[in-house]
């Protein structure tokens, strides 16, 4: 964008709003009382533009046509902070640009369109531009947006492409993988056109975008869908902005996937677990299960209408996948394991039929299950937003003992227990002593029933720990004994032993004695009172001076 091009744009036609901003524009509603005044702020315009498909907010230019440059100093030297503040407040990634005419500064805020099936709000009100005003979106429009369904970009026809634009090597790989997965060797003898038709990659003698992504020659990919590129960056340290090495992958999927995996595996260290006769060697990154599935998920579910590319950022102990476009409609971080929505149905269908990806909705389960069973903790999607999905895969083993515990469960032929991903997640939460309020009650009860976890304490002090097997397999019996609740006989024995040594004690002394075992003050008092009622203890004194001794 240049000043010359900018002043030729019209607000009514070019999705743009010009503001002189001589005194600046309020960033947020502030303390204004009238709703219309509260909305006319930077955040209000951004919300409205995003809801209408994106646009530009321009400061320092008159709104009347022909436009004149008057200049604005608002946010001067703070454009980076402005972008970050907007993201923090709205979770919308804007881009700012500064232009100059003589010494007059113009600030352009580029606003992306809202995702399909979602609208943005300011103070819980979805806004739209109507003339010069920012007004609440109608209920009818809100319903229309909420019921939007993404069309399958990969099923659309890619004009001007023929079968000659497909890579023969990629096609042969796809064909053989399909025949193997479907156990159909006759498929190998079918003509190329028939195979493409059967897989719905060819329709009315025209190829779809899915065909180009999976099979297209490098030249046609660069011409028709360059955003299919994948970049791999390696950094020695997460704090390093500059990468040590960067590789661009720009080939059809079936020639691409193994090359990426080999590139990641070149810098993939391993660790040997030493636990008794248990000696597995575990890679920092599980290439054939976790990493392959993460890459396939990125390719199968990214938004191809977004012109950004997939980035894989590798560090010594972490892998990060950055995928253009947010989660598909109805999917978010909280329900990613429970809701299965496919953005690119045709592409995902072919990948599934050729054993490249798990069945619909199973890929994320596989990633979670593998990371947890290797003692690395959960994968992390928390950096994701409406415009990109970010997956952090941990490489460092957090708990070697947990690995052996899970291995014993899964490979115990007598019990034949096969954990679900939700059970695995809950076991890991219990391992980390996470607040029990986060526990799924149904999953919790199932783990109790099959004896993989145990209760300690009661009511408010009720907690859960991994079963005795976890501590036995890993030679931590002492730790187990220190956390399980004491029996009544053990409590009585401690009280009598203490009085035998120190002759007398107050309730507070007993509370201190049992605190390390998790007993509450009330539980301790009840045990002392029972011994007194049974005649084994003698109470001396009143109120704060009361103490107990053995009744010899």
Describe the main β-sheet briefly. Answer: 5 strands, mixed
**What Rg do the Cα atoms give?**
32 Å
Give average pLDDT, whole number: 88
Low-confidence stretches: none
The total of beta strands comes to: 20
Number of helices: 21
Under CATH at level 1, the class of the largest domain stands as: Alpha Beta
Shape: globular
* Approximate helicity band: 25-40%
Amino- and carboxy-terminal Cα gap: 96 Å
Number of domains: 4
Strand order, main sheet: write it out.
11-10-14-15-16
CATH topology of the largest domain: the name is: Heat Shock Protein 90
The assigned CATH architecture of the largest domain is: 2-Layer Sandwich
Brief overview:
The protein is of the alpha+beta class. It has four domains: 3-146, 2-Layer Sandwich (Methyltransferase, Cobalt-precorrin-4 Transmethylase, Domain 2), CATH 3.30.950; 150-365, 2-Layer Sandwich (Heat Shock Protein 90), CATH 3.30.565.60; 400-483, Arc Repressor Mutant, subunit A, CATH 1.10.10; 488-550, Orthogonal Bundle (Arc Repressor Mutant, subunit A), CATH 1.10.10.
């Amino acid at each position: 964008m240049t000043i010359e091009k900018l002043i030729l744009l019209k607000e009514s036609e070019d999705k743009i709003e010009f503001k002189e901003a001589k005194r600046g524009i309020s960033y947020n509603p502030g303390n204004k009382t009238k709703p219309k005044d509260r909305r006319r702020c930077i955040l209000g315009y951004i919300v409205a533009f995003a809801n209408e498909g994106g646009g530009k907010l321009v400061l320092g230019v008159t709104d009347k046509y022909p436009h004149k440059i008057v200049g604005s100093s608002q946010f001067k030297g703070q454009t980076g902070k402005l972008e970050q503040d907007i993201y923090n407040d709205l979770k919308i990634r804007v881009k700012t640009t500064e232009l100059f005419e003589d010494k007059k500064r113009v600030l352009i805020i580029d606003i992306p369109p809202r995702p399909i099936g979602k609208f943005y709000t300011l103070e819980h009100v979805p806004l739209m531009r109507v003339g010069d005003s920012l007004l609440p979106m109608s209920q009818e429009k809100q319903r229309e947006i909420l019921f939007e369904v993404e069309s399958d970009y990969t099923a659309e026809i890619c004009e001007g492409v023929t079968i000659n634009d497909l890579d023969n090597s990629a096609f042969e790989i796809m064909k053989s993988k399909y025949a193997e997965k479907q156990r159909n060797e006759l498929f190998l003898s079918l003509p190329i056109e028939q195979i493409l038709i059967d897989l719905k990659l060819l329709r009315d003698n025209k190829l779809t975008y899915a065909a180009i992504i999976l099979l297209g020659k490098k030249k046609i990919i660069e011409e028709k869908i360059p955003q299919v590129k994948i970049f791999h960056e390696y950094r020695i340290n997460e704090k390093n902005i500059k990468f040590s090495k960067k590789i661009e992958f720009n080939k059809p999927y079936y020639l691409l996937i193994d090359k990426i995996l080999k590139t990641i595996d070149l810098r993939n260290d391993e660790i040997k677990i030493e636990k008794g006769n248990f000696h597995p060697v575990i890679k920092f990154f599980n290439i054939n299960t976790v990493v392959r599935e993460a890459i396939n998920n990125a390719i199968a579910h990214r938004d191809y209408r977004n012109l950004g590319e997939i980035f894989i950022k590798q560090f010594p102990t972490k892998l990060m996948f950055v995928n253009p476009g947010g989660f598909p409609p109805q999917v978010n971080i909280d329900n990613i394991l429970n809701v299965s929505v496919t953005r690119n149905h045709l592409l995902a269908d072919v990948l599934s039929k050729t054993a490249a990806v798990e069945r619909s909705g199973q890929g994320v389960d596989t990633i979670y299950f593998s990371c947890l069973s290797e003692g690395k903790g959960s994968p992390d999607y928390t950096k994701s937003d409406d415009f990109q999905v970010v997956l952090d895969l941990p490489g460092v083993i957090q708990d070697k003992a947990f690995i052996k515990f899970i291995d014993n469960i899964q490979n115990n032929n007598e019990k034949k227990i096969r954990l679900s991903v939700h059970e695995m997640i809950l076991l890991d939460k219990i391992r980390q002593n996470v607040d029990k309020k986060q526990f799924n009650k149904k999953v919790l009860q199932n783990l109790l029933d099959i004896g993989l976890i145990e209760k300690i304490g009661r009511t408010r002090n009720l907690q859960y720990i991994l079963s005795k097997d976890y501590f036995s397999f890993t030679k931590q019996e002492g730790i187990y004994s220190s956390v399980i609740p004491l029996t009544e006989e053990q409590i009585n024995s401690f009280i009598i032993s203490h009085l035998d040594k120190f002759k007398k004690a107050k309730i507070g002394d007993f509370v201190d004695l049992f605190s390390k075992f998790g007993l509450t003050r009330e539980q301790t008092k009840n045990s002392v009172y029972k011994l007194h009622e049974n005649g084994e203890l003698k109470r001396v004194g009143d109120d704060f001076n009361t103490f107990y001794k053995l009744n010899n």
